[in-house]
Amino acid sequence: MILKEYRYELGKIERGYNNRSLYINLGDNSIKEKEVTQLMKDKFIGGKGFGLWHLWNAVTPETKWNDPENEIVIAHGPVAGITQYAGAGKSLVVTLSPLTGMPMDSNVGGYFGPYLKFSGFDALELQGKADKDVIIFIDGNKGMVQIMESDIEEKDSHILSEILTERFAENEEDKRNVSVVSTGSAAEHTLIGLLNFSFYDVRRKGTRLKQAGRGGIGTVFRDKKIKAVAVKFQGTKGNLNNPADQSKLNRTGIKFHKEMCYLDEKQNNMRKIGTANIIEVMDKYDLLPTHNYKFGSHKDTYKIASDKFIARVTQGMPDGCWYGCSMSCAKAADDFIPETGPYKGQKVIVDGPEYENAAGLGSNIGVFDRDGVLELNFYCDTYGIDTISYGTLTAFVMECYGNGILNKERTGGLELYFGNKEAALELMHQMSRGEGFGKIAGLGIRRMKQIFAEEYGADPAFLQDIGMEQKGLEYSEYLSKESLAQQGGYGLTNKGPQHDEAWLIFMDMVNNQIPTFEDKAEALHYFPMFRTWFGLNGLCKLPWNDIAPADNKYTDEPAKIPKHVQNYVDIFNGVTGKNIDKHELIVQSERVYNFQRIFNIRMGYGKRIHDKTPYRSMGPVTEEEYLSRQERYDKQLKEIVGFEPEGKTAQEKMAALRKYREDQYEKLTDAVYQRRGWTMDGVPTPEKLKAIGMDLPELLEVVQKHL
Q1: Distance in Å from the first CA to the final CA of the chain
Q2: Is 147 helix (H, G, I), strand (E, B) or coil?
Q3: Where would I find the H helices in 325-369?
Q4: How many domains does the chain divide into?
Q5: What is the pLDDT at residue 673?
Q6: Quick check: is 486 in a domain?
Q7: Is residue 248 part of a domain?
Q8: How far is it, in rounded angstroms, from Cα 328 to Cα 109?
């Protein structure tokens, strides 16, 4: 049953912008268009910037994630949708997070973002709550938006996306023109729900899923009783952005495609296995999170190394999640048969695994079983569970189980020790059903710490040390103990410890390229700003640094991949007709980055106290950890800390090392705040806002209260 239908005039994209967004309120089924103003384009660019701006204007400091006024905003960006350069099909999703209470942004591939753009809109705002499950359908060729009552009983994404692709397509060929946003059954019962964005794989003749994973966005989606959002657009081609200089896009894309063709196999094998190529590399350098980040390697890592997944993942297919992406890293394991759960015995497609999934669902919970990782991966995706949060919170639960904080009675019979694949899968199935200990685990680590302390008498300080969350968000899957810069790359983020802001482990720990506090602070300024820029434009970051020009090592700043930075300057200018340089690119990001920081402050967060991190991210919490690297730690104490370890107990040595490392983090925080133009409490100053052109009255009003 159609609850509301809205007709709109088809427009024409001009230099990457439609100059309008689509607003839908599910409380009263109202639908309208909103102007995308010049201020929005100048200050917020698109994508994440548009999402944050729309959300800022929709909520108040008192708004909670499950209030009707909270929004889910899906936006792309001016460059999104081009087919000449790799990785140009990204969307950014923004909402108030159930986990953090702050604005959350998560990037995702698939066809939805470009199809939304070609259908006439630079962003989609979803506000209010429906009374019953609804499906939203946007037909970009007919100029029609419909809100309809859902008639679909199925709850999980791999089925929903197939049903709705079939429903809205006219025939087999037309299926490629449909993209569906959905979540799964677990998003109704947990705070870690994700969103799946579909694209139809014409070679496999089935829908594939890409994930906007972080922060519980899928939970908000289901709280609003949205079953799915689908968009259909026929007629994709390479000039729909109506760019200012099409030839510049063509020339820039050709340069990159040649690099992928000649260099990928020599560098990262993205076209064979995607991001899972680094599993054994992380293990080699003691960076692979193992047993809740206690260790950085394991003797059984070879069982989940990239070659094992290469053997299982279908080869020889161009696996891009948007047209024209020669990186083709969206890998899939075809005809996978789960051994447990409601889809036991059925053939399914597993997306990936990405590195994060292999590490989080593998080594971090002690599951060194390739097919076990794939099954966990499949169920996370279709149930709508963030794989990173699931892996990290399950690792926390397993350590608590091993320390007697949890037992079979408290977990309802689940023996959640490291390596118990069956228990990990059952925990996930419980989340999907809203039953048992799965309901508690699905609340996330921050809330579990409180429950375990209040109800089970656990030591709050120990829980704080080993609970790998910060700002309420679970850590992504890199071991940061030996990299102060990466500790800052996690702790000094806006949304929580996610590596998409700064991944500095190799620069800092392996290559020693940023030895001083000032060097680290500069890196923690530049790289978060540069990576933010991808999210403003609808771009994937992987083509930037997962393939590098052959002569990159001879450049002045090889870590920045300067030729690729210039590529991005060129494609932005080529689309928009502007004439920015690499310096203005960073300023564009600074505007949005500082805006998000102020948004956090407005919501009651975003200060220095919220940038504190669990000690497990800095150093050894337990004697077992210390002893596993005793030679390294003893040497550091003697040569760096000035503490003589000879004759001291492990506890004395750990205390001395902890004091030093926590002090180092505080000094790094000072240096980063200074470089970013913030106070020592982490508040952007009016002078900084004026310097970057963000001294908007509503922002100055917030910061003045906190100076």
Answers
A1: 53
A2: strand
A3: 355-360
A4: 3
A5: 98
A6: no
A7: no
A8: 12
Residue 22: its H or E element:
strand 20-25
Beta strands 123-127 and 20-25: pairing type? parallel
What residue has token string 């102020």? 598
Rounded to the nearest 10°, the torsion over CA 320, 569, 121, 603 is 100
Residue 240 domain-assigned (yes or no)? no
Strand partners, 469: 474
Clarify whether residues 162 and 13 are in a common domain.
Answer: yes
pLDDT single digits (tens) 688-704: 999 999 999 999 999 99
* pLDDT score of 91: 96
**What are the angstrom distances between the C-alpha of 411 and each of 291, 406, 452, 522, 591?**
19, 7, 12, 46, 46
Taking the C-alpha atoms of residue 348 and residue 345, their distance in angstroms, rounded to an integer, is 9
Whole-angstrom distance, CA of residue 419 vs CA of residue 399: 11
Q: What distance in Å separates the CA atoms of residue 650 and residue 285, rounded to the nearest whole number?
A: 24
Q: Tell me: do 653 and 561 sit in the same domain.
A: yes
Give 424-476 as a DSSP string. HHHHHHHHHHT-HHHHHHTT-HHHHHHHHHHHH---HHHHHHH--EETTEEP-
- State whether 398 and 517 are in the same domain: no
Same domain for 507 and 469: no
**CB count, 10 Å around CB of 651?**
10
Mean pLDDT split into 10-residue runs, the chain, 707 residues: 97 96 98 98 98 98 98 98 94 98 96 98 98 98 98 97 98 97 98 97 94 96 98 96 96 92 87 86 95 97 94 86 87 94 97 91 98 97 98 98 98 98 98 98 98 98 98 97 96 94 86 91 96 96 91 93 96 97 98 98 97 98 97 96 96 98 98 98 98 98 95
- What lies within 8 Å, CB to CB, of 635 at 6+ separation is none
Residue pair 377/424 in contact by the 8 Å Cβ criterion: no
CATH code for the domain in which residue 606 is found: 1.10.599.10
Judge whether 490 lies within some domain.
Answer: no
Q: Would you state the pLDDT for residue 679?
A: 98
CB contact at 8 A, 38 and 141: no
Residue 594's identity, in one-letter code, is: N
Distance CA 413, CA 307 (A): 36
CA angle 282, 285, 290 (to 5 degrees): 55
CA atoms of 672 and 687, how far apart (whole Å): 17
Measured CA to CA in angstroms, residue 88 lies from 109, 323, 441, 530, 665 at distances of 9, 8, 36, 16, 36
512 C-beta neighbours (distance < 10 Å), count: 9
Question: Which of 203, 232, 261 is the C-terminal boundary of a domain?
Answer: 232
For position 104, which CATH number holds?
A: 3.60.9.10
C-alpha angle with apex 222: 220 to 226, nearest 5 degrees?
110
Residues ≥6 apart with Cβ < 8 Å to 456: 405, 406, 410
- In this structure, the number of other CB atoms found within 10 A of the CB of residue 37 comes to 12
Tracing tokens 């080993």 back to the chain, one arrives at 466
Query: Using CA atoms, how far apart are residues 652 and 670, in angstroms rounded to an integer?
Result: 28
pTM, entire model: 0.97
Give, in order, the Cα–Cα distances in Å from 509 to each of 11, 227, 506.
Answer: 51, 45, 5
98 with 140, same domain?
yes
Domain extent, residue 644, equals 501-704
